[in-house]
Amino acid sequence: MTLHEKMLYHPIHPVKFLTDWGTGLAALPLFALHRLAEALLAVLPGVFISLLVPYAQLEPLKASRFGQHISSHMTRQVEVIRLLGYVAMACGAWFHSSWMIVLGLGGMGGWTYGILNRRH
Prior knowledge:
This protein is mainly α. It has helices at 3-9, 14-32, 36-42, 44-51, 59-63, 65-73, 76-94, 98-109. Helix 2 (14-32) runs antiparallel to helix 4 (44-51), helix 2 packs parallel to helix 7 (76-94) and helix 7 (76-94) runs antiparallel to helix 8 (98-109). The two termini are 24 Å apart.
């Protein structure tokens, strides 16, 4: 498996997935309290886990249904939408705006579109 493939599939590894969602959600109250440095530190574990990607065993994920979905749907544009989704959530927390948080959550989760639709 090439490094490019590992970078593509690593976000769906259970450890990376749970770390990103857990730390991302944990940082939102810190953003709401305007504790920017602490909020940014809270999301660092996800970055650290990403550094371990070259050593991860990702072939089973590539062969999974979710992996097949990722291979055809996870483009750079979708990655940008995911990032902007989290930025919208962080801004929503900062400004205490529920609609921004919901909008950002939709952007972050939108890349899963089609996973349950068997026609894709």
